[in-house]
Amino acid sequence: MRTRYTIATSQHFRPVHTLHAYSGSATRPLPVTEAAARQLSLPCYPAMTDDQVKGVITAVRALWAQ
Question: Which residues are CB-neighbours of 63 under 8 A, at least 6 positions away?
Fold first, then answer.
């Protein structure tokens, strides 16, 4: 989204067992934890203008339709 639409995104939460401090602590696969972490944080802040909100919505819809 950054390249095509200049909209910054990030991964909001990372599973604890993937953090450096806890590396190797998982003794078995954690598919539910990893699935729950597959989220995308979109811009959302009080000073967003209506045009900025519309831009994010337009970008998400365009990428979803691909």
Answer: 1
- What is the model's pTM? 0.64
Please give the tally of structural domains in the chain. Answer: 1
Residue 31 is predicted with a pLDDT of 93
Position of tokens 């910054």? 8
Q: What is the CATH number of the domain that holds 50?
A: 3.90.1150.10
Question: In sequence order, which residues have a C-beta less than 8 Å from that of residue 10 and are 6 or more positions away?
Answer: 40, 41
Residue with tokens 């959302």: 44
Q: What's the domain range around 32? A: 2-64
